[in-house]
Amino acid sequence: xxxxxxxxxxxxxxxxxxxxxxxxxxxxxxxxxxxxxxxxxxxxxxxxxxxxxxxxxxxxxxxxxxxxxxxxxxxxxxxxxxxxxxxxxxxxxxxxxxxxxxxxxxxxxxxxxxxxxxxxxxxxxxxxxxxxxxxxxxxxxxxxxxxxxxxxxxxxxxxxxxxxxxxxxxxxxxxxxxxxxxxxxxxxxxxxxxxxxxxxxxxxxxxxxxxxxxxxxxxxxxxxxxxxxxxxxxxxxxxxxxxxxxxxxxxxxxxxxxxxxxxxxxxxxxxxxxxxxxxxxxxxxxxxxxxxxxxxxxxxxxxxxxxxxxxxxxxxxxxxxxxxxxxxxxxxxxxxxxxxxxxxxxxxxxxxxxxxxxxxxxxxxxxxxxxxxxxxxxxxxxxxxxxxxxxxxxxxxxxxxxxxxxxxxxxxxxxxxxxxxxxxxxxxxxxxxxxxxxxxxxxxxxxxxxxxxxxxxxxxxxxxxxxxxxxxxxxxxxxxxxxxxxxxxxxxxxxxxxxxxxxxxxxxxxxxxxxxxxxxxxxxxxxxxxxxxxxxxxxxxxxxxxxxxxxxxxxxxxxxxxxxxxxxxxxxxxxxxxxxxxxxxxxxxxxxxxxxxxxxxxxxxxxxxxxxxxxxxxxxxxxxxxxxxxxxxxxxxxxxxxxxxxxxxxxxxxxxxxxxxxxxxxxxxxxxxxxxxxxxxxxxxxxxxxxxxxxxxxxxxxxxxxxxxxxxxxxxxxxxxxxxxxxxxxxxxxxxxxxxxxxxxxxxxxxxxxxxxxxxxxxxxxxxxxxxxxxxxxxxxxxxxxxxxxxxxxxxxxxxxxxxxxxxxxxxxxxxxxxxxxxxxxxxxxxxxxxxxxxxxxxxxxx
Length: 847
Known about the structure:
Elements: H1 2-5, H2 7-25, H3 27-32, H4 34-63, H5 70-77, H6 82-103, H7 121-131, E1 171-172, H8 205-213, E2 214-215, E3 222-227, H9 229-241, E4 272-273, E5 286-287, E6 317-318, H10 327-330, H11 334-340, H12 400-423, H13 429-465, H14 482-486, E7 499-500, E8 516-517, H15 525-530, H16 534-543, E9 545-547, E10 555-556, H17 557-560, H18 574-584, H19 590-596, H20 605-611, H21 615-625, H22 633-639, H23 650-665, H24 679-687, H25 690-697, E11 702-703, E12 718-719, E13 750-754, E14 762-767, E15 771-774, E16 778-782, E17 785-786, E18 792-795, E19 812-816, E20 819-823, E21 829-830, E22 837-838
Parallel strand pairs: 2-10
Antiparallel strand pairs: 1-6, 3-9, 4-5, 7-8, 11-12, 13-14, 14-16, 15-18, 16-17, 19-20, 21-22
Helix pairs in contact: 4-6, 4-7, 6-7, 8-18, 8-21, 9-12, 12-13, 12-16, 12-25, 13-23
């Protein structure tokens, strides 16, 4: 199965390798052209600038190990998988190459290149080759076997047959409106102070936070309908469907200045300006902010891959699959998936923590990078470290409640896998894993669309924008939109409580586990392991209300003044990060989106008051923005009056509703679609709930029927014996071994999955990560026996991959069975990234 998952990537690489072999033949011809040679040198310089910046950042990270800062924690939580990093760096090389090209004066032209100047097709391909962008722009090769309709690929690719990249990981976020960049290509709103919006400058985002958004910890209105776990589910699901990698460099590409040492706007730095009397001022007048990486083929370099007469503005990448598929549990790339799986288990299990247990129940494993940047308990010896958790998403350790939700679903997968294996002894580990993964993904879909979204957008908006399920629609693009990810679904930040509560078995305060402020649980997995495990934390979430999103009580000071706070090392402001990110992504303003949703534009303060009943808030907004058309969309959507029975206003209800319908109707593997599950299985899935998952995987014995509904203990809680759940007998498979063919042959470093269709008894073979299949992938039983010999798994020599080398140029690549090693020559040593050589001064060798 794993070889099927990486087919798209490997096919793209293979195709590109062949393509570039033809390109090599013409290399001498290209270099004979003085001007082309000049351009290639400029492109190489642009690529080198990015590579130097990335290597310098690695050096600084190595030197700073052991010194945890808010910036390091933010960078860690926004650190994508290696594949996403490679794509981001390729796109940045391309973007920087074009910037250098614009400034370079070549002999024939006697002038610098204009972005719309025509370059030869061969030269454009050479530029793409140098940057590394081209392989990532080729369409994936989709598997054509009976498993293609049974299990989704881990990358999300090939869900849509006609558009195999729709919803796939590491592709651009969707645009529902054209982006609003100051130069039309990629310069963020507010980048150039000389650019005016309706006659005025945009306000500084930190001013918007301090004057409109910030609320004290004491200024909290409790939500009288919903429990605190509804906020956690929103954050958890957001991390299932959207993750935008930010630049992997921490210095400016053109000048090499560290972003933390400059307040200038220069890619990839887009610092947040602050006043000198600001509590977050570091004496420089700004907080560092790193732009999101561009997608290959967009922004300044969009001309290289599109119509030269139509410039393609900068787009951003989604490092995850767009689908509601529990990628929080399983990852969104083959490499991530293999790190999370227990590949030696016969039961298709996920890896667990081997050092710590929660009353014999499992914890998430720790990340491989040690020491990780997570904060340690100051009361224990220096040798006893609790590292950041490893999960399907890198943000799992951000706060304790999020880590608890990730842990809950790790346990649920392993519980399901063990139960499925016990009733289907003939299933291979691969079949058990895929069937458990399929169920967990379905439960994520059910809990989100049935139990969560109607409460957020209200029944009227749900009926208007989502409605009843009528089957898979291949014309609908399920890709997560930029506006949803960067603005609308961040409404939940205004529902976060400043206090974390842990409760005992009677749902009472536990003197041994006192309340904590939110900043005391940022990146502190030790609190989960050392302070009572999951149960007290989950009880606190179930029995206490969420914070109500009130127009003059938006984000509490834990988020606006103490985000990732670490003693005297400073902190961040989540509201300012959100506003700056919206500008970085070129999101059009509030009124543009109201018009998109068919809502009336609000042109005056009086009209604003029709959507925002708090007149003091509208006055503050007008004082800062001067014109409603200037309002940042995240702020505008956040302060709208709620719709009836909702926790959002009409704008965010529209955007969230449209996105959820696209995720449901554009997903070929949606749980209600024909032939994904049997009718009996769907009947059982409908019985399950988040409350049941808590019952199955914790020591908690009494829960609300609906975990999101706020209730009082004990009258509104039920014993777990009375909480419905699935009967897994619907997944029992009656196995009759084929008398003619017998059991398929097992293969070393591989596995097979039964996949019979159209009355034919079929098996599909796959190899473990690091191996490739040689022979026939699909075998079918005929009257004469199996139609082919069983294949074998051959080791992949990763060191031969010239398109995306596994080791940096400073290291030597050595192939090993199923993997590879990067080696350095004395006196150099391998850095903790496993790819780069460093000297005695712990500085990378820069090439």
